[in-house]
Amino acid sequence: MGNKCEENLKVGAATIKAAEKYKGQEGAVMMALHEVQNAYGYISEDNQKYLSKELNVPLSEIYGIITFYNRFSLTPKGKYNIQVCLGTACHVQGAQTLFDLVKEKLGIEDGQTTEDGLFSLEGVRCLGACGLAPAIVVNSEVYGKVTPKKLEEIIAEYREKK
After folding, report:
1. In contact, 62 and 106? CB cutoff 8 Å
2. Is residue 31 within 8 Å of residue 59, measured between CB atoms?
3. Parallel, antiparallel, or unpaired: how do β-strands 119-124 and 141-143 relate?
4. Dihedrals phi, psi of 160, to nearest 5 degrees
5. In this structure, are residues 100 and 134 in contact, taking their beta carbons and an 8 Å threshold?
6. Cα dihedral sign for 70, 72, 77, 80?
7. Is the pLDDT assigned to residue 23 strictly greater than 80?
């Protein structure tokens, strides 16, 4: 990567602040990534490159962390991010039907965001809410024992909030 590329990075103020705040600290990358994710809803390639340079960590390590943890995203999410648990307990209780219903109702696939930016969808392996199977999360709100009817009501509720 040449200097010219580095000079033209489009980096947000939260990224610069996070790099300055955690530079030289143990766990700096993880803490900085959390701040950037919270500020922008995802971690852009330019923000990754900036953190790599400022925290003196290989870009591949930053990318590896982002892609390993569900908490981080490489692409912008909708205002309401719907996570459908597809883990064993939820799967047995009909989670695939719920996942397919969300795709149909919103007209998007796994990992996509609706054109209006209102919703995004993620199929996840486990939400840690096995006793509530099948479970979904909208942003940080957990919904358990979700039926297709209840799912439609949840989506309608969030549409009204816009």
Report:
1. no
2. no
3. unpaired
4. -70, -30
5. no
6. positive
7. yes
- Kindly report the pTM of this predicted structure: 0.70
Architecture of domain 80-161: 3-Layer(aba) Sandwich (3.40)
Cα separation, 100 vs 26, whole angstroms = 42
- CA-to-CA dists, residue 90 to 7, 31, 77, 128, 144, angstroms: 47, 31, 23, 10, 10
Instruction: Return the residue matching tokens 């330019």.
Output: 46
pLDDT at 3: 33
Q: Which two tokens stand for residue 148?
A: 């297709």
Residue-wise pLDDT for 94-120, tens only, equals 999 999 999 999 999 999 999 999 999
* Number of continuous H segments (helices) and E segments (strands) in the chain: 8, 4
Tell whether the torsion through CA atoms of 69, 71, 72 and 77 is positive or negative. Answer: positive
Domain ranges of the chain: 3-68, 80-161
